[in-house]
Amino acid sequence: MQLKSMIWKELWQRPTPMLTSLLAVTLGVTALVAIQNITVFSERKIAGDMESLGANVLVLPPNVSLQDYYSADMHGHTMPESYVSQLALARLAGVENLAPKLCVAADVDSIPVTLTGILPRSEFQAKSAWQGLGMLTNAVGTDAGCCAPKASVPSAGDNDPDSLATNRTIDELGDRDVILGRDIATQLGASVGDKLPLLGEEFKVLTILPATGTIDDGRVFAHLHSVQDLSEAGPVVNVIEIMACCEEAAGGLIGKLSAELPDTRVITIAQVVETQIAVNGLMSRLSWVFFSILLLVGGASIASVMYANVTERRKEIGTLMALGATRGFVTKMFLGKATLLGLAGGVGGFAAGTILAAILGPQLLGVHVQPMPSLLGVGMATATVVAVLASLLPARRAAGVDPCLVFNDA
Known about the structure:
Layout (H helix, E strand, L loop, with lengths): L2 H11 L1 H39 L2 E5 L18 E2 L1 H9 L4 E14 L2 E8 L2 H5 L37 H4 L10 E4 L1 H7 L6 E4 L2 E8 L10 E5 H8 L4 E2 L1 E6 L2 H14 L4 E4 H44 L1 H9 L4 H39 L7 H27 L3 H7 L1
Parallel strand pairs: 4-8, 5-7
Antiparallel strand pairs: 1-10, 1-11, 2-9, 3-4, 3-10, 5-8, 6-7
Helix pairs in contact: 1-11, 2-9, 2-11, 2-12, 9-12, 10-13, 11-12
């Protein structure tokens, strides 16, 4: 008698109860892998955003709850565009750039798109009253702190439309020009110079931004005033994004901005990050809770199946032992089945969890995930241990069958 052949025979002859147990174990590993995968890559995304964006402040309508920095203008609430002028005229030290935005839904050849109105630097330069803004003139005031003086003209890099992806600013943008994120350009099959129908007008594709791994990859950017006029939204914006020149200046701005615009909600990127980190921590803890519960259910299911298997097959076990099978052989046969179930559940759960994370990550959090081999080891090891432990008592019961008593009962 070969142990391996006996184990495979057991699995193939009684697949239904084994598949039920396998499903419970697989679901536990799937939940752990999916949530942990999304959590880890979400934290990496936050770290990347912080590194690329520096010190930032958002001015929002008062009743907005913010979950993610890059989707700050997706809430549907608005505030007057005049707030931008008010901030510019306030000449607050530390303000390096103002970026008002308005986000509306639109269609391009029946394909839904997110159209985001932005204000290029040329609009700020065109208004002499705004020349006190730090991004256009040298920093003024004794509380400028660590802010370095700024040139009175945009930097050479901002003349490139692609700078919108890195600096989140652009120098020039025509009334009928659009800038496409990488993903939406691929979806539309659009190239630089193409004409796109938007809100009843034709827009020319000025450039296609490099991939950023953020929600901006799926957006269409146009001039703020064009979006306001064509959507009939009026002179309003969803968010005013402020780039501060250093962490200290950004921290000092909060009180001044709140005093200047008391009817708004002013938050820093640090607050957004703290909120996201808290959510990630909760998700991580919940993944272990789900994992533990589902594995306990799986373990109970395996133990029940194994006990039923022993009860139904007492005669077969007795026959095996009468033919020379030792108690150790019988024990190994049952534990071998449990080991295969655990390994299969770990591998299957890892594959299912990774696929689930790859689908839900971009949709729910704008996070692109990749397989994490370390989770494969964790899933396989834990699932196998649970399966083996759940099978120990049934295996000992099977090994304790007395062939003489079994045949006498018959």
